[in-house]
Amino acid sequence: MDTRYLRALVAVADRGGISAAAKELGYAQSSVSAQLQRLEADLGIALLLRTGTGATLTDAGRRVLPHAREALEAEDRMRRAALGGRPRLRVGAQESLAHAWLPEVLAAVEYADAAPGIDVELTVAARSILERAYAAGELDLTLQYDNGSGPAGPHAVIGHDRTVLVAGPGHPLATGAPVAPEALLAYDFLVAEPDCTSQMLVDRIGRDLLSGAQLSMVTGSLSALIRLTGHGQGVSLLPHLAVAHELDAGELVRLPLTEPLRPVSIVARWRERLGPAEEAVRALLDVGRRADPLPEVTPRAQGSGAR
User: Fold this and answer.
1) Which one of 33, 59, 80, 183 is most buried, by most CB atoms within 10 A?
2) Spatial distance between the Cα atoms of 234 and 228, rounded to a whole number of angstroms
3) How many H-runs (helices) and E-runs (strands) does the chain carry?
């Protein structure tokens, strides 16, 4: 099967129409239409529903799409191998993990030469962006804090992190005394963006303690959230790894709660059939487990069923 046909299908799915797909691929619209028709003829089923405003995938098209992405990635790996290029592993991670823990994990993998001949490409982004990129076949492995959704496909808990409530050193609650949950309701909880780690932790872990808390959205990065919290604009619930440096430097202080906060899992999710890059996946998972911030918690965690 001509991979140009598969590339056309993926482009239409990503761009929402044949015209936009043709522009991205650098073909005439009529050429892309012909490629799609040939693909449908080869498979003997309609993959697209064509309308006056664009094109959408049929049920069959949605079933075919992930296989098309996988075939295109396999072709890319084959071409890289034929040209003597090094295999690559495309890793995506949330900023809250890439802030501290992940650089040490990647450095340990490289130092141990645990994945020789593999180029690791790192993408740091918000959860929603990583999920879209993984679904689009643009990432091979993601590392994220568990949001309770239970990812499909191969995945595993490779560690845990403490959940900490932090504020600036000048915040009225930063006295060192234990804070009752109801005392927090007078202050804003800062979160970086919808679906970010800070909001997820409030929803998953803190909501039972913090019912009625006012969330205040910070448009920007984790770094911006940390700076605003340090300057007394509110309090934030974050993984310890994300703020360890600021806590050590005295730029943030931990607010001890009268009710304990549960730790949060670090979840790895990866694709099957990655060829030579599978060795890099195994090495990264192994080093990640050995770098577990809370090793006393992880053995008690339930298995994901993936290996």
Assistant:
1) 33
2) 8
3) 11, 12
Work out the angle at residue 191's Cα, subtended by the Cα atoms of residues 187 and 196, and round it to the nearest 5 degrees.
155
Is residue 261 left, alpha or beta, with left meaning phi > 0 and alpha meaning psi from -120 to 50?
beta
Task: Compute the radius of gyration of the chain from its Cα atoms.
Answer: 23
Polymer length of the chain: 307
CA gap 291, 101 in Å, rounded:
8
pLDDT digits (tens, 9 = 90+) for 87-145: 788 999 988 888 789 988 988 887 777 667 788 889 998 888 888 888 878 899 999 98
- Residue written as tokens 């089923």? 45
Q: What is the pTM of this model?
A: 0.71
Q: CA dist 105 to 57, 86, 125, 279, Å?
A: 40, 21, 18, 15
> What are the tens digits of pLDDT across the range 199-237?
665 665 555 555 555 666 565 678 888 999 999 988 888
3-state secondary structure string across 2-57 = CHHHHHHHHHHHHHCCHHHHHHHHCCCHHHHHHHHHHHHHHHCCCCEEEECCEEEE
